[in-house]
Amino acid sequence: MAHVPLRLLILGAHPDDAEYHAGGLASIYRRLGHTVRIVSMTNGQAGHFERPPEQVATMRRSEAAAAGAVIGAEYVTWDFPDGELTADLATRHQVIREIRRFAPDLVLTHRPYDYHPDHRAAGQLVQDATYLVTVPNVLRDDPPALSRDPVVAYMPDLFTKPCPLEADIVLDVTDQVDTIVRMLACHQTQVFEWLAFQEGLLQQVPADPQQRLEWLLGWYRRHSLPRANRFRADLIDAFGEQRGREIECCEVFELSQYAASADLPTRQRLFPSAVCRPPRSSAAATPAHDIPSTDHPP
Ligand SMILES: [Zn+2]
Q: Domain extents for the chain?
């Protein structure tokens, strides 16, 4: 059978969200010859302590494009102002058009439970757009409706209220760390300026490009460990006691109930190299509130 490339669309709120939360999966996709498109829904203009917003937006647009080029992915930055993304109708329509045009097999986004209002809005917008992407009378033929919803999954976060993220998919990204760090390093105004400033690390950032990469590797590893520790039980479950305890860098994903359902073979196809849990509702009697076997009730 001919190799049919999968299509991954990451709809993040800011330029750098995709690589920080899902750079490992994106690089695995590209290595396997699949297609990856990354969208930052906002222009990222708020991400600095001294550069003016217009300059930050311009710089972050090219930083994002460069990060995409590291793995051969298209990285698009929309014009919505950073810090002002809302789940309104006009933005929903833009998300519907984006999903219809790209026709992804898999969409990744934020959960609507998050510290950042732009992340919450992004998650809500994707939730509002799915299903409607299949309805021809919504934005009639502009572009044409899809024949089916994509599978949607949430990128990892550590928030617990109203509910913690459930790791349906567990991915050890140890082998992808260097690529993730090279992608993150493209976001110079962020990792070497704004985030370093916010964390009080500005004086530590080396001037030499190679030393900067090594410093960023340490930064990424430090920030990855709390994620690995939060999902430690899932890592042990997926990789066994010894390896599960060793892993320091992982990505986990929760499948959205509000888009296409994905059985175990579909999950394994959409998340290559990952350990996938079977759908929860098929493990036992289906609770009354769960979505039944058809994707959407009338
Ligand atoms: Zn963000």
A: 7-278
Give residue 2's pLDDT: 59
Domain 7-278 has CATH 3.40.50.10320: yes
Residue 73: partners with Cβ closer than 8 Å, 6 or more residues away: 26, 30, 36, 37, 38
- Long-range contacts, 28-31 (Cβ 8 Å, 24+): 28/171, 28/176, 28/272, 28/273, 29/272, 30/71, 30/72, 30/73
Q: At residue 240, does pLDDT exceed 80?
A: yes
Q: Give the pLDDT mean for 105-115.
A: 97
Distance 119 CA to ligand 1 centre (A): 6
CA of 262 to the centre of ligand 1 (A): 27
Q: How far is the CA of 18 from the centre of ligand 1 (A)?
A: 8
Tell me which DSSP letter residue 170 carries: E
CA of 6 to the centre of ligand 1 (A): 25
Q: Enter the pTM of the model.
A: 0.94
pLDDT for 149 beyond 90? yes
Ligand 1 centre and the CA of 288: distance in Å?
Answer: 35
Distance 162 CA to ligand 1 centre (A): 20
Distance from the alpha carbon of residue 120 to the mean position of ligand 1, in angstroms: 10
